Amino acid sequence: MSISPKDVLNKNKNLNKRVSIEEINLDDVTIDDLKFNGKNYDKYINLYSLLENVSACQVSDAYNGISHRSGTVQKIKSVNNNRVFGKIFTAQTTSDDWGTSALAIDDADEGDILFFKVDSEDKAIWGELASTCAKNNGIKATVIYGSARDLDALLYMDFPVFASNHCPNAGSALGLGSLNEPIEIEGVEINPGDFFIGDENGIVVIPKKLFAKTMAATLAVKVKESKIIKDIGSGTTLSQIVGLRNK
C-alpha cells in the first residue's frame, strides 16, 4: 500500500496507515519521527511500517553490523511478553526508593519509555499501581534493571514491563533518585532520548545518533530474512542458503 498525495494533504491523516516492507522509504528519518508532529506524516508512517514488523533480534543484528555491539542488556527480560519501541526517559535510584518511579511518571513525555537503573534487586520499585498511573499518563512501557512486583496483575495488563528480577516487597516513597541523566548498565551506555525496542526475546538499546543508520540496516535485515524464508519454502535448505552445502 503506497502513500498518496491525498494522504499527505488530508487534515484527518490516517496514522494507522502502513506500507509494505518492499515499499518502505526511510530517507531522512530521525528518531523524532517516532512521534507524529503534523508535518512528518510520510516519515512517521514508513518508520512504523518497519518497526511494527521487526523483532528485537533483527534490530540487534542490524546494530551489530554497524557498531559491532549488540545493544542488549542480558539480565532484563519481558515480564508480560508485550512488545514495544520508543524513546527512553532514564531514571536512577536505590531499591528502597519507589518514589523516584512516581516522579519519573510525572516528568516523562507521552510516548516515552521509562528506563530505571536500580542499585540492587532487594526491593521492587515498580508494580500494579505504577503501571496503571504510567499507562494513564501515556507512558509506553517501563524497563527496570532491578525488581518489579505485583506479577499477578502485571501479567494481564496491557502495559509492557521489563525487569531483571521480581519480588513481593517494596521500599518507601523517598523520591531521592536522579531523572533523565545518562546511565550505564552492563557496559551499555544509555542516554535520554536513545531508542528502545523490547519483546519476548529481550531488549535492545540504540544510541539516538545511530538511529537512522540502524533503521536502514534493520530494513535490509528484514528484506533479506523474508527472502530466506521464501527460499526455504521453495525447498532450499538453510545450510545451502548460508553456503555450507551446494544448492
Based on the model shown, name its key terms.
globular, 8 helices, Glucose Oxidase, domain 1, nine-stranded mixed beta sheet, alpha/beta, 11 strands, two-stranded antiparallel sheet, 247 residues
Could you characterize what this model shows?
- This protein is an alpha/beta fold and 247 residues long.
- The protein has two domains: 78 residues, no CATH class; 108 residues, Glucose Oxidase, domain 1.
- Helix content is 31%, strand content 21%.
- The chain is built from eight helices and eleven strands.
- Strands 1, 2, 3, 4, 5, 6, 7, 10 and 11 form a nine-stranded mixed sheet that branches. Strands 8-9 form a two-stranded antiparallel ribbon.
- Helix 5 links the parallel strand 4 and strand 5.
- Helix 3 packs across helix 7.
- The longest helix has 23 residues.
- The model has no long low-confidence stretch (mean pLDDT 93).
